[in-house]
Design brief:
The protein is 39% helix and 38% strand. It contains four helices and six strands, in the order H-H-E-E-H-E-E-E-E-H. A six-stranded mixed beta sheet has the order 2-1-6-5-4-3. The chain starts with a helix and ends with a helix.
């Protein structure tokens, strides 16, 4: 099992953050513009850990050279069942350099967007180091 998957499944936010490159780029399933940097990505992932219910990875698809990984998942958000995929690319040090999340169906993506929008002021405060 990949350490990123283990950290997510264990709910270990600190371990997850340790796996991120400083210049990681996070591409959200519900926002057009990617987020750049470890602080904002860490804060978003922390919020997502609270928003997703009954989260579980169901498949791990790895590139033979170890630089790319797809983790297929299922979860619920606001009573909506969703399927998704975390697409990860790792830098030469093995840290997550690029994380793109895809989700379906549209109704679940909309529920995710609403749930994250409700938390985003807190996410931005955490990313900026404010409490």
């Amino acid at each position: 099992m990949h350490p990123f998957r283990k950290a997510v499944e264990d709910g270990d936010h600190a371990a997850l953050v340790d796996l991120l490159a400083e210049d990681v780029v996070f591409t959200s399933p519900v926002v057009f513009k990617p987020y750049a940097g470890k602080p904002i990505t860490a804060a978003i992932l922390g919020a997502v850990m609270h928003v997703f219910e009954d989260f579980r990875y169901i498949r791990e698809i790895a590139d033979p050279d170890g630089r790319d990984l797809a983790l297929v998942f299922e979860a619920r958000v606001g009573g909506r069942e969703l399927q998704g995929c975390d697409l990860l690319h790792f830098d030469e040090d093995g840290r997550v350099a690029d994380l793109t999340v895809m989700v379906r169906p549209l109704s679940a993506a909309q529920a995710l967007q609403a749930a994250m929008a409700a938390r985003f002021a807190t996410v931005e405060q955490e990313a900026s180091g404010a409490s």
